[in-house]
Design a protein that fits this description.
The protein is mainly alpha-helical. The protein has a single domain (about 10-425), classed as Up-down Bundle (Na+/H+ antiporter like fold), CATH 1.20.1530. The chain contains 16 helices and no strands. Helix 9 packs antiparallel against helix 10 (about 245-260) and helix 9 runs parallel beside helix 11 (about 265-280). The chain is globular.
Length: about 425
């Protein structure tokens, strides 16, 4: 008897459909209140619920695979985010970013660590790990609220809008800057709560050294590659003349590998490398080639991970979740992040509507999954591993749903508002948008 829906053939068929959908859906859904992550998360749930013979993608059982798969996806997305930012680096021009990093992220970590400790009953180390994992805005799943492809004219560079720039630059840097708090959780799980023994070393190594090495090696790698791409005297090495986009992958792995070799934060190095390459020849069209390649690769990896996350949910990842967990997850997404974001942006250059959007769209995603996998595999959290994975999986799934439904309508409304304001003030076109 033929088994039409069993064996590798149906898996290849499903994979083909998924990849084709990954190419088609961004165009079909660009004005709909439905995001691509929502579709593929649902596809994963349905596929693994119906196809019983598929192996369960349990992130606890396959911890190492989960950690490295999400790691690769995040660093590729960080390269894409850095290459996409048109605004030149500066303390004043990036003031929104510094507020989000210096005020909003630590505030979210502190508040949610307390909530996790009190209401979820997690140990202190686990509560800090969950809070640190959920704090960063995700650079992978937030494409609807981030800047689009890089432009190659100065007029376009000057029109980059504050919301998309702020969320993209925040996502690019806070994935690395959340790492000291992950290491804090790991240290607490191994050494206990007595700070005298570990606090000086944690601050010197995990904060100062690792951040400094990430910034310096990212900048140095970006400078070297920028000169190679755009200024090399030998045509064979001036890669901007050859339009080979896969070189962006080499830059990603080189910056990440060097930083990790010298015990720095590779996430920071990759993003700094990307914005340094972008600054080397800001109006060159080669940036579009690099960004396009990275974006396509990032999309494929994120689709694969979302399908697996949906599969984990279908196979029982959220079985231990209760109403307290659901309420606390919604409190974080709807109250903690938006309130912390708005407080951190008070007095900044963004308008009221822009502040609200920046505060609300703290998308949780694949970076959260990486941090949880990394923390659990390097610390002593065995007693609470399943509970931690279940709660973080719940928050990511709710974020995909909540932000996926609201992103397109909200960003379209902001774009219309900017166009009306520009028309009234006679300032020409509104800021460049990405829909």
């Amino acid at each position: 008897m033929l088994k039409l829906f069993e064996g590798p053939s149906i898996i290849y068929t499903v994979l083909g459909i998924i990849v084709f959908a990954a190419a088609l859906l961004p165009r079909l859904l660009r004005r709909a209140p439905v995001s691509m992550p929502m579709v593929f998360l649902a596809a994963g749930i349905v596929s693994f619920a119906l196809l019983d013979y598929l192996p369960s993608p349990d992130p606890v059982k396959y911890e190492v695979v989960t950690t490295h798969l999400t790691e690769v996806c995040v660093i590729i997305s960080l390269m894409g985010a850095g290459l996409a930012i048109d605004r030149p680096f500066g303390w004043r021009s990036w003031s929104t970013t510094w507020r989000m990093l210096a005020i909003v992220m630590p505030l979210c970590i502190g508040v949610f660590a307390l909530l996790g400790y009190v209401f979820l009953g997690l140990g202190l180390a686990s509560a800090i790990l969950v809070a640190a994992s959920l704090a960063p805005t995700d650079p992978v799943l937030a494409s609807e609220v981030q800047v689009g492809e890089p432009v190659d004219d100065e007029e376009g560079i000057d029109r980059e809008d504050e919301v998309r720039f702020g969320l993209t630059s925040e996502a690019g840097l806070n994935d690395g800057l959340a790492f000291p708090f992950v290491y804090l959780a790991i240290t607490l799980s191994l050494a206990g709560a007595g700070p005298d023994a570990w606090l000086p070393q944690w601050f010197a190594v995990d904060v100062l050294w690792r951040i400094g090495v990430g910034v310096l090696l990212g900048y140095g790698t970006g400078k070297l590659l920028g000169r190679l791409f755009f200024s090399s005297r030998a045509d064979s090495f001036r890669l901007s003349n050859h339009s080979e986009g896969f070189v962006a992958l080499a830059a990603t792995f080189l910056a990440y590998g060097l930083a990790e070799t010298f015990e720095g934060y590779g996430f920071i190095a990759v993003f700094v490398c990307a914005i340094t390459i972008r600054a080397a020849e800001r109006s060159h069209g080669y940036h579009r080639v690099l960004h396009s390649y990275v974006e396509q690769l990032e999309r494929l990896l994120s689709v694969f991970i979302l399908v697996l996350l949906g599969g984990a949910i279908a196979r029982g990842l959220l079985d231990t979740i209760g109403w307290t967990d659901v309420i606390l997850a919604l409190v974080f997404l709807i109250l903690v992040r938006p309130l912390a974001g708005y407080l951190g942006l008070l007095g900044g250059q963004a308008g009221v509507r822009e502040k609200v959007a920046l505060a609300f769209f703290g998308v949780r995603g694949i970076g959260c999954l990486y941090y949880i996998g990394y923390g659990l595999s390097n610390g002593d959290f065995d007693a609470e591993a399943n509970e931690v994975w279940a709660f973080v999986g719940l928050v990511v799934a709710l974020s995909v749903l909540l932000h996926g439904v609201t992103a397109t309508p909200v960003m379209l409304a902001l774009d219309r508002s900017r166009r009306r304001k520009a028309a009234i003030e006679g300032e020409g076109e509104a800021p460049r948008t990405h829909v």
